[in-house]
Amino acid sequence: MSTSVLALLSLLPIISVAIFLVILRWPASRSMPIAYVVAAGLAYFIWEVSGTKIMAASVNGLIVAGTLIYIIFGAILLLNTLQQSGAIATIRQGFSDITPDRRIQVIIIAWLFGSFIEGSAGFGTPAAVAVPLMVGLGFPAMAAVVAGMIIQSTPVSFGAMGTPILVGVSTGLSADPDMSAYAATRGFSEFEPFLEFIAAKVALMHALAGTFIPLLVTSVMTRFFGASRSFAEGFQVWQFALFAAFAMTIPFLLVATYLGPEFPSMFGGMIGLAIVVSSAKAGFLMPEKSDAWDFESPEQWEKEWSGEHQSKVEPQSKSMGLITAWSPYVFVAGLLVLTRLRVLNLETFLRADHPLTTWSWPEIFGSDISASFQPLWSPGTIFILVSLITIGLHRLSAAEYQRALSSSLKTLLPASTALVFTVPMVQVFLNSSGGAAGYEQMPLALAEGVANLAGSAWPFFATFIGGLGAFVAGSNTVSNMMFSLFQFGVGERILVDPTWIVALQAVGGASGNIICVHNVVAASAVAGLIGKEGAVIRKTLLPFFYYALMTGSIGYGVVNLNQGLLNPGFAIATMIVFVFIYYIVKYNRTRPD
Q: How many angstroms separate the first and last alpha carbons of the chain?
């Protein structure tokens, strides 16, 4: 079968997701079973993968879904615990004391706090922390989820202490035994400095594209969730948005360049938080209080915006200090950092090959697919532990904690349904190699078809392929494992520096998290927003296309510098920047005095 036909067939599961979830607006609980059937049917009838392996991949998907559900439960439980204690009311008042402006709040929570949590833990944890916090502060659930997804871009390549680079790219490239020899020709006698060399390129492209992410977050929020449904109100805080972007991306780039891929997102988010919150309190670049932007009253919201958690009434009888109210989140961030720091080496104990720390099912049904769950390593355990600590910190009664627990369990069941089909579909799609037909797994077959069509224009497409990998796999790390070596090979084939093409893969894989189905499902679940996943993806498609096109254009420009600074890549990137400048000027001209 030709490469083009295989690529088209490989695209069918993704097309089914686009049609039923995004276009027809079916909930994920209805659309993802169809996508699963399409993927399984292709694997069995076209790729001729054995039924046993398809079942093994499906079971592995159910186990992975279970690990996500566990994290979701922990995040919801912590939120409900804080609602019962009155901490959310105190945190909300604390933000109001800085500013009641929701545009500033979303930048601080989603962009800066989210980047810090991404750097600490990764794997969707920022959504599990930042999204419910925004919901608790009075954001519509859908607005919180959309904001949480958009920032899943710049910090992602260095999430979980650099896992997408140190594990994803490293595993993908090291599959070629000649890669060490290639690294030596570039002046790297060891493989780790070679990875750091690639990581610096990844950070540079992220820093450039990330400049406009806070502005996109605010403008998308005002366009879809504001009373006037206008991008203009989001663009009117452009000074603060750009300041917050640089407060994160400059230290992010410096850390990646001089310290390596482990700490850029964590340090960038932490340093950015310190700079921006201090500046906001001092009124630097802040909108006037009379111009503060807020959502309409909840009675005016569209029905699909609200989540399960927004009908709850918070206890108002308890009063506490802001530090006490924030302390559970400090514990979460601290425990995530402590358990992930390599210098402490707690990972050796928390992920040890022991029945108490690792629950595994090797070679499921005799296949080459294995599954495992490490509960002590899971952020879900940290959320649950901190919720228990909060009982003492915030002096909750047994009845109050029981209400939080009961509410969390009730929310969990409908939230779990979509994941039960989403993740098995992904696993079948990824584990489609080794069939009797002898074809590559579906993602690689699809990428090969695109590469044959793109030719020398491949850098424009490299980020979209990386994004596609994250879209279906739910992970930048997995996307990098799948495609890094392939992207390296395409770079050699079109006679450009292949390390830049690998860097484009890593950046594109990060951007794919913006629209990744199972991340959207998980983020929606922690916000209590069930069945609206397609609506979320429709609102995040524009930021994804911006990010993938911007970085792909920069990559094309860099690898084709021999064509001059006015080559098509730099030309398109410059046009994108001028579009932002145009709208900043346009919307601020119409701003009332």
A: 65
Name the packing angle between helices 398-430 and 442-454 (round to 10°): 60
List the alpha helices (DSSP H) in 560-589.
568-589
**What's the pTM value of the predicted model, to 2 decimals?**
0.88
The single-letter code of the amino acid at 6 is L
List residues bridging with 372 in a β-sheet.
360
- pLDDT, one tens digit per residue, over 384-418 is 999 999 999 999 999 999 999 998 888 777 767 77
Q: How far apart are CA 13 and CA 569, in angstroms?
A: 31
- Residue 75 CA to residue 476 CA, distance in Å, equals 22
**Amino acid identity, position 375:** P
Q: Rounded to an integer, what distance in angstroms lies between the CA atom of residue 396 and that of residue 78?
A: 13
- Residue 373 three-state SS: strand
Cα dihedral 320/321/323/324 (nearest 10): -20
Cα-based angle 581, 586, 587 (whole degrees, multiple of 5): 105
User: What proportions of the chain, in percent to the nearest 5, are helix, strand and coil?
Assistant: 75, 0, 25
Q: Concatenate the DSSP letters of all residues of 283-312 into one string.
A: TTTPPPGGG---PPPGGGS-GGG--GGGGP
Q: What is the pLDDT of residues 493-533, one digit of tens each?
A: 999 999 999 999 999 999 999 999 888 988 998 888 888 99
Position 593 scores a pLDDT of 44
